[in-house]
Amino acid sequence: MSTRAQQYAATVVSRTELTPHLVRLVLAGPGLAEFRSTGTSDEWVGLVVPGQFQSRYYTVRSWTPPRDGADAELVLDVVVHEVGLVTEWALRDCVGETVTVTEPKGSLSLPDDAAWLLLVGDLTALPAIARTLEEVRTARPALPVRVWAEVPDDPALLASYLPRDVDVTWSAPPGEGESRLGEVVEQIAWPEGEGYFWMAGESAQMRAIRKHLMRVVGLPSTAYDVMGYWRGGGQRRQPRAVDPAPIYAAGKAAGKTDDQIWADYDAAREHEENR
C-alpha cells in the first residue's frame, strides 16, 4: 500500500496577478505550522485545490516560518493556461478558500566549488530561478550567473521579478504549448572551468537537453539538473476518465472523511479502467 506524502491545510490569504500568465498566491494558516522547508531553492509542493483530488506541483517562491504569534506564509507563483486543474480555479477570486499542500521536495544542488552557474527555463521555471538568484546573491555574491528565460509575456512586466543586474536573455515561445529552449541551450558558449547548469521546462525538450549535456558538452551528472515540468507538443489536456468533482461533492454531502472519498474515487477509477 502506497504512503501519501505529508499534507498541510492552508488558506489563500491573497491573490495577485503578476502578468497575464502568472498569478501569485499567498497561503497561510495554522495548518502550515508543521511545514518544513527543504532549504533547496527549487523546492516544490503538490497543490490540491477545492473540488479536486489530483495535485499539481508548484515551486515554493518563498517560505516564512511562523514566528511571534504570526502564521507561516507559503508563496506560490502559478502559471495559468486556458485549461487545467489549478488554472480555472486560480483565474478567479480564490481568496479565503482552503487548499492542501504536500511536503516539499527539491533537487538543485550547487557544488561549493562551482565556478559559474547557468539557469535556463520557461515561465514555469521562473519562480525557482528567481529564488535561486536571491539565495546565490546572499551566499556567493561573486559567483558568475547567467539566465535564459522563455516567457509568453512582455519581459518588461517581469523586470522586477528577478534581482537587479542579472545577466538575462529573454525569448518568447514559438506558440502555445511549445518551446525552443533546446535550441537556446545548443547555442550557449560554455564558460571555462567546472560549474553548474540548472534547467526546467517542457518535458520533451528536457530529454533532448540531457543528451546534449552528456554527449556534446560532456558535463558529468553532478554538474547539471534538468527537470521536465510539463508536457507540450501542442496537445491539450485530455479529459479524465473519472471526474473527481462530483465524487468529492457527494462524499462531503454524505459526511464522509477525505480518506473515504479517496477510496470512492479509487474504486470509480478501477471500475472505469476495467470496463
TrEMBL record:
InterPro entries per the record? Answer: FAD-bd_FR_type, FNR_nucleotide-bd, Riboflavin_synthase-like_b-brl, SIP_FAD-bd, SIP_fam, SIP_rossman_dom
Signal sequence region: none
Tell me any Pfam family this protein matches: FAD_binding_9
Domain named FAD-binding FR-type: residues = 5-111
Q: Which PANTHER family match?
A: FERRIC REDUCTASE, NADPH-DEPENDENT, NADPH-DEPENDENT FERRIC-CHELATE REDUCTASE
Q: What is this protein called?
A: Siderophore-interacting protein
Which organism's genome codes for this protein? Nocardioides imazamoxiresistens
